[in-house]
Amino acid sequence: MPGSRRRAGERLRDHTVATIEQRTWRLAEAEDWRAIQIREELGLRALLATDYHQLGNTAYLRGRLDEAEDWYRKALTINEELRDRPRMAGTYHQFGITAELRGRLDEAEDWYRKALTINEELRDRPGMARTYAQLGLLAEARGQAPLALQWNIQCVTLFDQFPSPMTGTGPTALARLTHQLGMPALEQAWQQDGCSAC
Questions:
Q1: Distance between CA atoms of 160 and 88, rounded to whole angstroms?
Q2: How many of the other CB atoms lie within 10 Å of CB of 38?
Q3: What are 17-37's pLDDT values in tens digits?
């Protein structure tokens, strides 16, 4: 019985993701709640944290940042209790995005750096790439184009393939910043050993 209930929860989660992609918010939230009830019933805390994080993402996509942060907080509490560092990094990253959207750029940077520390320790290159790209966007929002360029170089050089699908906004930002700053700035930043100002 618990195995079939668990599979039901997993099917609901998969369908929820597809529903979110279709932007059918009410149905996605209803399915999230059904999945949460099953996971609570079975004591599946790690999966509950995933559900809470997903509810945070749904709220974020709907522009409900306070609600998103509440769900992320619930997810983070469980992930910290379970010492699930990869998921902690993902939630820190989402907190950074919501802080950045609210114009709290210093707070956003703190969250991104917390995520980056974990991703670098775990050598999670896709996680590192997401965070490098986000720090590049943050630097750009602050009017620090040379620093943004360095962050995006770090992002795109993590993988042999260019552009790699794992680098998200990195290649586009790199092209935009190169156009803005010029090819000599790109060449100079590319030759630096790492990101000196990061």
A1: 27
A2: 22
A3: 555 555 577 777 777 788 888
Taking the whole predicted model, whether its pTM rises above 0.90 is answered as no
What residues contact residue 6 under an 8 Å CB cut-off, 6+ apart? Answer: 38, 42, 44
Measured distance CA(109)–CA(168) in Å, rounded: 18
Query: Cis peptide before 2, with omega less than 30 degrees from 0?
Result: no
- Please provide the distance, in angstroms rounded to a whole number, between the alpha carbons at the two ends of the chain: 52
Q: Given the structure tokens 């998969």, which residue do they identify? A: 14
Taking only the tens place, the pLDDT of each residue in 84-139 is: 999 999 999 999 999 999 999 999 999 999 999 999 999 999 999 999 999 999 99
Q: Which two tokens stand for residue 151?
A: 């962050």
Q: Which long-range contacts (CB under 8 A, 24 or more apart) does 162-171 make?
A: 164/129, 166/125, 166/126, 166/129, 167/129, 167/133, 168/129, 168/130, 168/133, 169/133, 169/136, 169/137, 170/129, 170/132, 170/133, 170/136
Q: Is the pLDDT of residue 68 over 80?
A: yes
